[in-house]
Specification:
By secondary structure, this protein is α/β, with parallel strands linked by helices. 35% of the residues lie in helices and 25% in strands. It has a single domain, classed as Rossmann fold (3-Layer(aba) Sandwich), CATH 3.40.50. A hairpin with a 2-residue loop joins strand 4 and strand 5. The chain is globular. The structure holds adenosine-5'-triphosphate (ATP).
Length: 250
Amino acid sequence: METSGSAAITATGLTKRFGETVAVDGVDLDIPRETVYGFLGPNGAGKTTTIEMLTTLTPPTSGTARVAGVSIENRDQLKQHIGYLPHDPPVYESFTAREQLAYAADIRQVDPDRADERIDAMLERVDLLGDANDRIGTYSQGMRRKVGLVQALLHDPDVVFLDEPTSGLDPRSSRTVIELINEQVETGTTAFLSSHILPVVEELADTVGVLYRGRLVAEDSPERLVERTEEGTGTLEEAFLDITTEGGPA
Ligand SMILES: Nc1ncnc2c1ncn2[C@@H]1O[C@H](COP(=O)(O)OP(=O)(O)OP(=O)(O)O)[C@@H](O)[C@H]1O
């Protein structure tokens, strides 16, 4: 695989406008491989738009980025290296989970000899093996989320983009998903994690970036962001509220 130094994601001046709206405004990123980057921001801050640019789903208005060493202009090459769990996972209602994942494995060119075994192991991990032959149309939101997560990780991507991976999951499933993400990172994947569930971000992220009105206004380890709170002993939530309060510290 083509690589550029040790960075999993680099971006320079990444900007997206929708008419008068500047959704993402000159974002620079330099995210090392095999780390978890927590991407925070209030509703409408530009997180999804940033992820859509980094996953080639929408082109930037200006700026450049490379993911896993591949330019975001090179969609066909890049998509083999990335996984994406969006807000609404792309699944066919009429497929069973097993059919959906076999289809995804085929598209992502997972070795056919390995695919079935990997699908079963991951379904078992997220406690979906018993439901694997039921149609996704009958699944709960949490079950869909888990299928979407397995689909995003199935091909061992170099970089995985996760939008609210634990949203709607029960505590045990949430814990399993956190462990799964940690293990995936230990085996070489970089995770770009967008979530409003701050304890999960605090637990997983090596670095947290806070987007506010399209701009990256803070970037540091969770511990260092917490040190910036009034008493220096707060939570990531307090740090987030300070950073994203109008006129507050940036
Ligand atoms: N296709 C679009 N056309 C016009 N405006 C858009 C489009 N997509 C996003 N926007 C605008 O861009 C801004 C950023 O939206 P985005 O969805 O990236 O935010 P977000 O940080 O992901 O929010 P949330 O936490 O609510 O999911 C918002 O003002 C939104 O209205």
